[in-house]
Amino acid sequence: MQPLLRSRYYAVVITQSLCNSLHSMVDSIEQMARTASGKRRWMFLWRVVYNGRIACQPTEPSVTIPSRADHPAMPAEALFDADLDSWRAQPERAFDGWLSQHGFRHGTAVVYRSMWGKLLRWSGEQGLAPLTWSAAQIGEFLDAQKLHKSHRYRYARLIERVFQHLSLARQDLVNPASIAVRTKLADGENDPTAFLLPGERDLLVARVLAPAAEDALAARQAPGQPSRISPTQWKRARDVALVAVLLGAGLKVAEIRALRLDAIDGLDDRDDHGVPALRMVRADNGRAYTATLFGFAHAPLRHWLALRAAAGTLGDLVFPALASGRPMHAASVYRRVEMLLDEAGVLAGRSERASPQTLRNTCGAMHFDAGVPPAAVAQMLGMRDLESGWRLHAAYQAWQARAGLPMAHRAEISPA
């Protein structure tokens, strides 16, 4: 055997051996992942399982490696065109065929397979035959999983798509998921409106926003030329100012992503005694309004605007993703908010979710605590109508009752 061919032969043998070992390992991991598929840490292992399988697909026609889609009990063509009886007899295998037929991306297929498996397990626990569910039973399944509203809807749509596929061959088939969607069974209830506790917002101001203001003051008083601005410094100043404006003015994520420099009043004040405010316009109806900034947000915003200019940041977005001026992605805003809330120690003892919407709600609460009428708060937050201010006020009172706070509580923070 020639040296080149011999080397290639050994390489193929070694690779095949490694892949076989990998399959033995990921089969064990997959078995563990199945028993805890509802936990996020096992979703990572689930991805490892299928990424491992894909990595070891053979490059030579003569090499065969079994995959999850290989089901000897069902012919290959049946996987792609299973009828209702086949779906009910072998729902997992038929679902795999449906996934293959529609060409979903790998990550999406993994998530859908996990969702379908959870539905089948619940169905078996309830003694229900697969794909015999009614709309009410689908609603019971969604309730039992305690899913977030968006996840409930995604589940319902997945079930609906499966029944739509089956209805192509059986036109009289009733789609229970469509009925569940139309009758709002898939909607669930909205999560209670959440706010930051007075102590939590004090932590955020004291541990994140105030130190940033002190650093900005020290930088202005330092002699000589300012040092080169690093990307880390740039992002830190941006993130702190972003959180300060979200809490201090109650902006939505879409609004802060699109906020432009010319929307800031008080930008030219050099004595730090001006009161910055944001001139906003609602995207849906063009109505203009002014969002005032609480005092704790002034210094972080001023510091960021000065650093932004010194770094030569392009464009006119107040909070770009990079110095090139590209807009921030919404998911990045959520991540930055969560990171700073965690840094401040806010998330450590919280049971409710904290997000940019929580900061917006808290901004309204601080106005209420300062004695601002609900109708005026609705105007300052750019709400759709004045009644929205009253609804937020009622939600705040309900939240205070749940949190055990006195209704007469007044925060020390007030608009400047």
From TrEMBL:
Signal peptide: none annotated. Pfam families: Phage_integrase. Keywords: DNA recombination. GO terms for biological process: DNA integration; DNA recombination. SUPFAM superfamilies: DNA breaking-rejoining enzymes. Residues 204-410 form the Tyr recombinase domain. Gene3D superfamilies: Intergrase catalytic core. One of its GO terms (molecular function) is DNA binding. It comes from the Bacteria. The keyword Phosphoprotein does not apply. InterPro entries: DNA_brk_join_enz (IPR011010), Integrase-like_cat_sf (IPR013762), Integrase_catalytic (IPR002104). This is Phage integrase family protein. It comes from Cupriavidus plantarum.
